[in-house]
């Protein structure tokens, strides 16, 4: 949920994260199948970087969630059968790990309890 006032900057950053999430989903779908073990790891790291970066950029959970929604839209659209009968994901372990692992990464990033501290200090008081 958006907190505070709704500004043009917030709307633009969330729309940008949505588009970036879609692009990361398309790129990850292509990379995970092309370079199997390394490409799968790279695609999952990209999803994590997108969601965590979106969270830091927006200062809240919505940044991670919006990036994850864009990623999920791309993955679901690419997983659908086309009229010709083919689809982008091959039937195998790599595609399943990419889809389920990506969803887990999005949920983890979107439900983190705290935002990172801007100066790197913890929540303890004192020196």
Briefly characterize the structure.
This protein has 127 residues and is mainly α.
What oligomeric state is this? single chain
Cα distance spanning the termini = 35 Å
Largest sheet: none
The succession of helices and strands, N to C, reads: HHHH
The Cα radius of gyration reads 17 Å
Question: What gross morphology would you assign?
Answer: globular
Kindly state the mean pLDDT as a whole number? Answer: 82
How many β strands by DSSP? 0
Count of alpha and pi helical runs: 4
How much β-strand is present in the residues? under 5%
Which labels suit this protein?
127 residues; single chain; mainly alpha; 4 helices
What does this entry look like structurally?
By secondary structure, this protein is mainly α. The chain is 69% helix and 0% strand. The chain has helices spanning 8-34, 36-58, 61-79, 93-110. Helix 1 packs antiparallel against helix 2 and helix 2 packs parallel to helix 4. The longest helix has 27 residues, at 8-34. It is globular and about 45 Å long. The termini are far apart. The model has no long low-confidence stretch (mean pLDDT 82).
In terms of topology, how is this protein built?
Blueprint lengths: L7 H27 L1 H23 L2 H19 L13 H18 L17
Helix pairs in contact: 1-2, 1-3, 2-3, 2-4, 3-4
């Amino acid at each position: 949920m958006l907190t505070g006032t709704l500004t043009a900057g917030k709307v633009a950053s969330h729309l940008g994260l949505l588009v970036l999430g879609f692009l990361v989903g398309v790129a990850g779908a292509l990379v995970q199948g092309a370079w199997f073990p390394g490409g799968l790891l790279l695609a999952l790291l990209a999803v994590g970087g997108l969601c965590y970066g979106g969270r830091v950029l927006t200062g809240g959970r919505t940044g991670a969630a919006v990036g994850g929604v864009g990623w999920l839209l791309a993955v679901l659209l690419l997983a659908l059968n086309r009229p010709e009968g083919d689809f982008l994901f091959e039937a195998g372990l790599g595609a399943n790990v990419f889809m389920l692992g990506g969803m887990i990464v999005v949920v983890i990033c979107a439900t983190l309890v705290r935002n990172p501290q801007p100066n790197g200090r913890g929540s303890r008081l004192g020196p």
